[in-house]
Design goal:
Length: 518
Amino acid sequence: MKSLSSENYKKEFISTFPGDESGDLTPRQTPGMLYSKAIPTPVEKVTLLAWSEELATELGIGKPVSQQEVDILGGNNLASTMHPYAACYAGHQFGGWAGQLGDGRAITLGEWEAPNNKYFELQLKGAGPTPYSRRADGRAVLRSSVREYLMSEAMHYLGVPTTRALSLVTTGEPVLRDMFYNGNAAYEAGAIVMRVAPSFLRFGNFELLNARKETDNLRQLVDWTISRYYPHLTGEGKVISWFKEIVERTASLMVEWQRVGFVHGVMNTDNMSVLGLTIDYGPYSFLDDFDPDFTPNTTDLPGKRYAFGKQPSIGYWNLGCLAAALLPLVEKDQLLPALESYKEVYWGKYYAMMGKKLGLDHVSKIDTDLIAQFEKTLAALKPDMTIFFQLLIELPLHMGSTQEVKEFFKTSLYKELSTEEQEMLYSLIVNYLDRLNKNTITRQYSQKLMREANPRFILRNYLLHQAIEGLEKGEPDLFEKLQQALKEPYSDKFDEFFTTRPDWASQKAGCSMLSCSS
Ligand code: AMP
Ligand code: MG
């Protein structure tokens, strides 16, 4: 184990690319630059609130033992080989070109070498202004930091590709936020998360260089990304092969989000990782009731562009933006078919995933009709997604009547079912049982597949809300319990959380809908 203050940091990215080394934090455009040096702005007092022990072990980082080391997690102290910077990127936000964005409140401290000789960017989120902060303060509140810290770790344990979180500290400084964008700004506790990923490079890093017509920088960034993160791709066609692999990783990620019921909420191209990771946790939510039209982001309400059911097609749209950014390097005739392959790749992975969720031995053409019937029925009945699939694992192989089926799924329902809805459910279950009878695998094996594909514990928004309220009052019990529960999402060990969202939470701000204010 090495200490955070050791000399274990490399700076490959900034030694390879042009950057603004002035250290000036005034908001500005930085043409020709891929990053700007940005030293974290010190805070009042750094207090360690949470530390991811397992991640630290993987990285070979010892838990901080002195205030000087804790200070690193809050930007009050730097190790000698760190060279903090904010990356410059652009992006499409809500379907429109937004121009230069960049790390407005994230600062990469350095590239940490793990015991497996792999490198990980250690990044502070909320460590003060950078040249890309525009009119904002570069800070983060405890509320949003707890959400990022817990959820990125929860996604990891669910098996969904994601950036990670090593630590959560409070800053002892209040931060002013207008949580509902309604003119009622209030002070909230400030906090900083240390995020970890092999790279935080986004589609937007490449879009920026294309938009600026910096073709040499673009080519160099693509080559560097391939050699460092996709080293198996070499030779003449490597750029198109790389793009195809991003298409595939993005499709996989979308399928994984559908599997666990995760809604990102802000799928702008600056929030899309070129490594296919879930990145930038903001107004996200798990689905409680199964509603493909649900978006947790209040800013997204007008068009519901980022609703649960639309995520796969937005993934495709975002890949289109990345493809466009690569046009100076690859022929359109090559990029278009690669982009178009998304649909086939996505549906192949989606049906394979749904087959496991339903415990099928394989998925045939006819099975896709059954899967469509599941989607349609769940969208109409809106049961709790997690509880419904858990019940499905234990479904008796003989179901006599509509009434019996309704009773069986009762604990997953948020509403009384109409006669028509009860019939829909019955007909679905009859078809499903019929299909299960044709399975060539044992019932036990089918159930094993289902247990592996269907989480039993999810980090629901109302639980996060309660945990944050607790922390703000100095009562960390729920926060600590959730930290444990998220590590075992497929077990029944934390069944105290195995219930539908309570009524009080359905309309309460922060429990279903969230704003981007963080
Ligand atoms: P997001 O949609 O939250 O990923 O953020 C979009 C852009 O706004 C990124 O460039 C962020 O760095 C920037 N941003 C968000 N919040 C802040 C903040 N409090 N201070 C500075 N920049 C911010
Ligand atoms: Mg972002």
